[in-house]
Amino acid sequence: MTEKHDPIESLLKAVKHNTLSIDEAKQQLSHYDELGFAKIDLHRKKRQGFPEVIFGEGKTKAQLIKIIESLLKHNEIILITRIDKSKANAIIAHYPQLEYHTIANIVCTPIDSIEKTEHYASIICAGTSDLPIAEEAAITTEVMGVSVQRFYDVGVSGIHRLFAHIEAIRKGKVSIVIAGMEGALSSVVSGLVDHPLYSVPTSIGYGANLEGVTTLLAMINSCAPGTSVLNIDNGFGGGYNAAMIVKMIESH
Amino acid sequence: MTEKHDPIESLLKAVKHNTLSIDEAKQQLSHYDELGFAKIDLHRKKRQGFPEVIFGEGKTKAQLIKIIESLLKHNEIILITRIDKSKANAIIAHYPQLEYHTIANIVCTPIDSIEKTEHYASIICAGTSDLPIAEEAAITTEVMGVSVQRFYDVGVSGIHRLFAHIEAIRKGKVSIVIAGMEGALSSVVSGLVDHPLYSVPTSIGYGANLEGVTTLLAMINSCAPGTSVLNIDNGFGGGYNAAMIVKMIESH
Amino acid sequence: MTEKHDPIESLLKAVKHNTLSIDEAKQQLSHYDELGFAKIDLHRKKRQGFPEVIFGEGKTKAQLIKIIESLLKHNEIILITRIDKSKANAIIAHYPQLEYHTIANIVCTPIDSIEKTEHYASIICAGTSDLPIAEEAAITTEVMGVSVQRFYDVGVSGIHRLFAHIEAIRKGKVSIVIAGMEGALSSVVSGLVDHPLYSVPTSIGYGANLEGVTTLLAMINSCAPGTSVLNIDNGFGGGYNAAMIVKMIESH
Amino acid sequence: MTEKHDPIESLLKAVKHNTLSIDEAKQQLSHYDELGFAKIDLHRKKRQGFPEVIFGEGKTKAQLIKIIESLLKHNEIILITRIDKSKANAIIAHYPQLEYHTIANIVCTPIDSIEKTEHYASIICAGTSDLPIAEEAAITTEVMGVSVQRFYDVGVSGIHRLFAHIEAIRKGKVSIVIAGMEGALSSVVSGLVDHPLYSVPTSIGYGANLEGVTTLLAMINSCAPGTSVLNIDNGFGGGYNAAMIVKMIESH
Amino acid sequence: MTEKHDPIESLLKAVKHNTLSIDEAKQQLSHYDELGFAKIDLHRKKRQGFPEVIFGEGKTKAQLIKIIESLLKHNEIILITRIDKSKANAIIAHYPQLEYHTIANIVCTPIDSIEKTEHYASIICAGTSDLPIAEEAAITTEVMGVSVQRFYDVGVSGIHRLFAHIEAIRKGKVSIVIAGMEGALSSVVSGLVDHPLYSVPTSIGYGANLEGVTTLLAMINSCAPGTSVLNIDNGFGGGYNAAMIVKMIESH
Amino acid sequence: MTEKHDPIESLLKAVKHNTLSIDEAKQQLSHYDELGFAKIDLHRKKRQGFPEVIFGEGKTKAQLIKIIESLLKHNEIILITRIDKSKANAIIAHYPQLEYHTIANIVCTPIDSIEKTEHYASIICAGTSDLPIAEEAAITTEVMGVSVQRFYDVGVSGIHRLFAHIEAIRKGKVSIVIAGMEGALSSVVSGLVDHPLYSVPTSIGYGANLEGVTTLLAMINSCAPGTSVLNIDNGFGGGYNAAMIVKMIESH
Amino acid sequence: MTEKHDPIESLLKAVKHNTLSIDEAKQQLSHYDELGFAKIDLHRKKRQGFPEVIFGEGKTKAQLIKIIESLLKHNEIILITRIDKSKANAIIAHYPQLEYHTIANIVCTPIDSIEKTEHYASIICAGTSDLPIAEEAAITTEVMGVSVQRFYDVGVSGIHRLFAHIEAIRKGKVSIVIAGMEGALSSVVSGLVDHPLYSVPTSIGYGANLEGVTTLLAMINSCAPGTSVLNIDNGFGGGYNAAMIVKMIESH
Amino acid sequence: MTEKHDPIESLLKAVKHNTLSIDEAKQQLSHYDELGFAKIDLHRKKRQGFPEVIFGEGKTKAQLIKIIESLLKHNEIILITRIDKSKANAIIAHYPQLEYHTIANIVCTPIDSIEKTEHYASIICAGTSDLPIAEEAAITTEVMGVSVQRFYDVGVSGIHRLFAHIEAIRKGKVSIVIAGMEGALSSVVSGLVDHPLYSVPTSIGYGANLEGVTTLLAMINSCAPGTSVLNIDNGFGGGYNAAMIVKMIESH
């Protein structure tokens, strides 16, 4: 970080050369922490290309439009997750330069306009009911500038479907497994790949599935060592972590 | 059940023919239910060869010796589960005609002396830690007169080990899968066989395994349709059910 | 399985006799797993008469109609569970050769058109509220070609109702007990029959029933050895397992 | 309660007639609540014959001996529950006029010396493992001056054993059912009697029994209306309630 | 029960005297259990005056009307619980001789037309939100022919309100405490009365109340010995038990 | 409390001086507890300025209007929490002298008309979703006559935002931290202040948040010693406690 | 805090006057956060008199002796909680100037040597089993320089015992209620006092008490507004919070 | 993977050229799956340097010695986790070329003999009680050939300790946060770094910590997006994942 402009040195020099009063210097230093961290945040975004992420649930159309306006001024990439159809249509009407992914419940900067990595993340899910979360993970990964390969409908109850794709899954640099019910897919895939795997339990199931808590607990107890777990239905979190890894690999 | 001797008809005839007083007939009928069910119980054991099962936990050596004495008088097959080493040794010292299975924690009639079915039950478990429960299931099945094939150490984290044995597993008439942690083995096997599968969760694991509750819930939520679930560590229950099925198939 | 045509031997012979190039042979072998398992699946369906089962919940009318079209091309038996009235009516309008069971929430090939076993499964439930799940189990069993006898409204709070039917229940080759609340019916019936019993907890109850979790836990802890448990409201699973058993018995 | 002596009227009269100073009257009134309730407590014990109950767990031998000494001075009946063998022996050595019930883990005034009601409470339990709690209930009931009839080892897995005794159970004025595992005995008995039934879940079981929580929840969800539930292993509570009812009936 | 007509003796005599064939006697005896229990049921209702209770939830208007028709034929008392406004109005329109209790969600035989006991049950609740469950308990008790006294809005956060009524509460022969949140009222009242107390937890509360489970657990753990607990919101169960006790006291 | 008027002394004097009959004195004393506590309640309100608080949820518009009418007669301060928009508008239409806080879901006496303390409570929350609960806490505190400073949107995922305000937070006499999800803000703030901190978990989150139970448990386990916890979403409780502390400090 | 010496102003002045190089100034500022917070910590201890608290559980005798040595060098007050008898005796042997409180499991600076506030905290507990936690709260409060009044053995099952002391409890400036089982004491006391109340659930109980979780949940759901809750058995936390409040009141 | 030797092509060529009989070729292909996966496993280990990991808990000294013997023959790196002192000493006595890490409960190939990456993983933990799990993570990472930097005792209750080290933490390529209680450290660190973070909850805590379940749930609900979670006390899993990432970065 030798290239970093050093605001504290500048300030001290200004005090020394009487171009800054002690009171004003104190005032600026009192905000040091805040400026410092904010700068770090901007630095991170620059280097990693991680967009501002907006959790759409619970925000009004008006609030969302205002936030987007602010971000577009700084030419930021847009990523709004958990947005329903009605809000999404209102936003697209206002900002036709964005696109709406109906299955993923995401509004974002068009995927095709984003430069992506050569390496890819493998996104694997068991059944069609898990698709919204799988797509949330996939679109998040892509918006963050990382390529993905989708391997859907490969649940363990017909395990030959998984084996037909295992070589391509293994070629990815990271896997995200999205599954509901007993979540066994996570352990099975982890035993077949040699890269980190993120397990995203979904709330798909009924009865003793307990709205995904059973799936979460099962995945946390995986007998395979290379897995870690996100919150129920947190496809975004899976995509965010996976994208960080592929970016780091490709930037070295 | 046309061959069944009808005690009520006999009783009524005896009343009619004055060989039985009304008071005595009433007395006998007052015990009808009890006798009826007891008879049924004996009938079941005769036909199915199911032994009296003794849950060893919480019983003293003296109590166990007394129960065995009573059963041996009727030439019953003996099966004592959940018996620790100290009690087992005391019993074997007293009844050298029985045998002690150290891993299964079972004392029983010698397995070799029991005639067994041609068809077998497939008993599958993931890791060496699950062996005591797997053996409890296996010995129970065998004591009930049913052959078993053991497929141990075939966990899903190295799934090729399972596939090396899948044909033999499929040839069994019923499967018992014993697994701890996330219990994924149950779903994977169920997708590969076409007979009923009993899932026995074990308390093997740590942390969020919750002493087997997580495994139980995961198995209950299996995405594969042909499974049903026993209580945690209930290898006996798995063996008992599996043996009933193989016996029924072979007796038809 | 000596009658099984061996595709690998054919392939190897074709390579040896130069009727197949090594590249083509490799291509075919790369799909070996998939083909192999697919074949197994078809084999299972042929032998056991198990239909493709469609979980109707979460699928659109259009999706369901498309799936049915595909299955009917192969003359498959149709079984769609968890389908609501609106979707069911749309499907029947499109495929009048199917029938809709309103209580069971099932659309399927007409039950009367399916050949069934001589032996039957006993289906027992406690109250009228459990009927939808009991019927889901019954229709599933019948669609799979197995006869059923229904014993409804025989809860333990008036246990004489159960005893009036116990002989007929015992004559079945397998029992399915469907119950909510404390699920005591499962233990009581299991003590009276000598065949396997599947317990299906229902979400019928209130308060500390916890939407069926209490019933599930109670059934898992049954003091009677011959029971195993399905997920809450999983009448289909109970029927599927029971049908496998009766079929196996009758095919031997 | 028209016969009740009215201390407040006396006090006011004394003030009016100058036999009591205002300050002293205020002092007495400030303790009104405390005296009032204390009196009530004594009154209750007199009328109902309910003894002081001592929870033995966590108290030292010395503490217990001191408490007994105090109670014996007032000729109270003694009832100490949850007392282990070592403490019990120490107490009996000190107060040979008491007796120790080893299964119930109770030290108390000799049962034979206590006058008991004509009507009885029916105490019903499933298995030998539940005996300590059943005996805690039985001895508590007897110490409180109420007769009991014991019906042990009548679990639902062999329901004919229960029916052999059902008439005698019905003749009691209240039932206490002690059971572990799935607790089905509670619902079955409740459907056969027409008096109140107290369900005492025990911590007998393993795995998903969750140390009695499953039994408790199952009993709370009983389909039979005439039951209510005590804490896990609270045999004392069951006996205390049952004794209150029989006493009230007999005193009218 | 010496007055009981003995059908078995009659039957045996008829056989002996040739007025009944053996076949017909067997036929009758084969239904013995069922008739026996049914008779017992009727006997109970006769002696105790307990009505048939109908759980209204989940039953259609048509079903309810049909059930009522059947009961009215036998001049039974009617009690339908958990019935919503729409169904209730439909029933009252059809059977104007019944009355609808809007707070209790009950339709029943008019309370005023039912003869009631001299002794009463004390029904105590904490807040206005608990009123529907308190009224379900109260109306149930009254329909069963037992007088009640209502003590509402006497929660422990302003404990002086409770003390203003404690003498009248104590005069009842049994108490029902209905409370939500932490359910402390149950322990406080139990310490002040000398009769059995039924605790009915309600689902009133929010957050960590867990829809009444917290209240249920708290009541189960009451430090006061004379309480037992019903399911969450089970006002009917509380009333049913309480009524049994008062009836038994008054019939002796 | 030497200034307290002593009603009992007056009463006793009146009896002594024959200005009060013994019957009337008894009548008054019979209500002693109730009057006593009521007086205490009034006394508390006078000294602390704590208003009557009305929990709006589950009360009708008519009920609310009637309660307000009663309170306004005594010139009480009004505080109605958990009131939805429709009810709030109806009340404001009826009592225009009150004001409606839309985010807090509170109707109350206008905040500006209430005299407030010099010291303030610091109210800190993490995200915009927690605002309704934070505002419930803030308005409650203010209605009780205590100043507040709001520090919103200072979650730990961007901890520099918190540090920018930490000095001002520290100057408050008590803190209320409102947070959902993992609730880490509570521990972080507690480590930085030297006054008591109330943690209010919110139900903001999804999946394994379990509607706030996870947040509640996390806050209860805070590694920082100066925190205590309220129920989920209980902003009112946080404000009530905080206001008591500031009032006590300022009144000394 | 105008009296606070300002190190940043000094630094800036030194830079301006060339008595400090820019590099050295940058070096000092880079440690600003750490120094700043450390200073704050020391400042807090000075002003509030809060001692360093050592959690004794899991620390060895040697570790404890070393920590004490370090603290004594700075003349700090010593407070070690959760220390067992063996460790405590070893420490007292080494540092006879400390004292050991056997019930509270605390080793600390002698209570008598610590100057205490005029106002006191009321410490209330239900039964003798709760004493260790109550004493942990009491000793913690006293070590922190705050007076306490103990009100032990005043459980709600005999509520007159509580009322005998209520005036003295009310005179305290804060209450700590320590209770197990259903924890009702917390709600009852809170309704009778007008100061903040800290509820400390204990793990005293059995069965469905769930090692204190039930008590914790019940206290969190208290119907009384002026309470907040600590972790199970966290008497120290209760004392720490209560002491902060009394200190703040007395220092104003 | 173009360099990969293709065994299937060789086999087919051998068949074609008659150097392999069809029967032998079939035999080899029948083991294809198993060999294929085994080869993959070996390949993974070669490329990534991941050692065979032995879970020491539940294995005897004899078993462990035998496993080590087998691994040493293949010159494998040794890593045995969860091994207690007694077993560890026995192994070191037998294999003095291994080393025992007492805090981490690990026996392994000497850390100094393993070549490590230039980049490092940051390992952060809150308190001294979490050290065993933190060291399990650290040693695992190092045995896998990845450098680590340890940042211990930086809990959020004194957050300045964390900030003193934040720059060094940020320079790592991945973080592992080990924490018990409320686990807030995970969210705080995640907000300050721009690389993936693995959260390992520990079972450190008491009461409502529920042996780490609370910590696990809190970490799963982190408000910071770049975290994922391992099982309770699974330091090994954290190290394994972190090592995979650093290795992948450095190998590109």
TrEMBL record, chains A, B, C, D, E, F, G, H:
It comes from the Bacteria. Transmembrane segments: none annotated. InterPro entries: P2CMN_synthase_LarB, PurE_dom. Residues 119-251 form the PurE domain. This is Nickel pincer cofactor biosynthesis protein LarB.
